[in-house]
Design a protein that fits this description.
Belongs to the metallo-beta-lactamase superfamily. The protein is an alpha/beta fold and 291 residues long. Helix content is 25%, strand content 24%.
Length: 291
């Protein structure tokens, strides 16, 4: 009798173990990865840049005698927790004017529309913009910045130090008056998770300027996406890892390129070169969005 009781107890224990295993599997199956935040990326035309002396975008004579038409895109990122404006395009004084060629003949620039009109196409006003950030503060990225004085300005500390220093006054690539109204400064010391959930991250990539940065966006459908800033200006720059002669720091630029490519590979991110016409053409232009 004792033997039978022992066998029954053993059988019951085995059944209990099997049931526990099934329950555990069922629990595991119910655990799902959290849904990505509903982030949307809007692309806008911030003007046109005719690079009449393409050799400025290299060291040595790589592009000697060549020219290229570039775009000047800017972007709005809508997130459930707020709105980020990334770059603002060329100076708005160009709107309604003939294309302007710089005195040295290096660039011919133009802009068709103001940023306020363009944002209205997606139902956004200047008051709606919670954050403004530039890939860097060259004049072709800060042209409409002063509309957003109430927005929080996300800028790397070395970039802000240069922006408020003396050297900037002698450098024609900058127009400090174009962002002089921005006083709500949030100084960054490296990478910054804008909304705190990993979906929109500013990546510090100095070299082109003292505090150059790029933008990572993890879109729900399109997936990991990288906006290059001026890490590269066109595809040939990226293919050859070519650094413009006017970059602030050559060695920092080399390091930034390596870091950028490693990050893009690790994230399996789609890279959009902001000045590259072919990449601009791949993007749905506002009011359509990349989701």
């Amino acid at each position: 009798m004792k033997k039978i009781v022992t066998l029954v107890a053993l059988a019951l224990a085995i059944i209990a173990c099997k049931e526990a295993t099934v329950d555990t599997k069922e629990v595991k199956e119910e655990v799902k990865a959290p849904a990505k935040p509903a982030v949307a990326l809007y692309t806008f035309d911030g003007g046109s840049v005719g690079a009449n002396n393409l050799n400025l975008f290299a060291q040595g004579d790589t592009y000697k005698g060549e020219s290229k038409q570039l775009v000047d895109a800017f972007y709005v990122i809508k997130h459930p927790k707020g709105i980020l404006l990334w770059d603002t395009g060329l100076p708005e004084g160009l709107v309604g004017q003939d294309p302007y060629t710089t005195p040295d003949g290096a660039f011919t620039i133009s802009r068709k529309d103001s940023i306020i009109n363009q944002l209205a196409s997606i139902g956004v006003t200047k008051e709606d913009v919670d954050y403004i950030a530039f890939s860097h503060i060259h004049f072709d990225h800060t042209g409409a910045a002063n509309h957003f004085a109430a927005s929080k300005w996300l800028i790397q500390k070395p970039e802000y130090a240069y922006a408020t220093g003396e050297d900037i006054k002698e450098n024609g690539f900058y127009a400090p008056d174009s962002f002089s109204a921005l006083t709500n400064v949030v100084g960054l010391a490296g990478d910054h998770d804008v909304f705190g959930d990993g979906s929109v991250i500013i990546k510090s990539m100095p070299g082109h300027t003292p505090g150059h940065q790029v933008l990572f966006i993890d879109l729900p459908e399109h997936g990991p996406t990288l906006l290059s800033g001026d890490m590269y200006h066109f595809q040939e720059n990226r293919d050859g890892k070519i650094i413009p002669v006017f970059n602030h720091d050559l060695e920092q630029s080399k390091t930034a390129i390596a870091d950028f490519e490693a990050f893009a590979k690790a994230k399996k991110a789609t890279v959009y070169i902001q000045h590259e016409p072919a990449d601009f053409a791949k993007m749905p232009v506002a009011p359509k969005a990349l989701n």
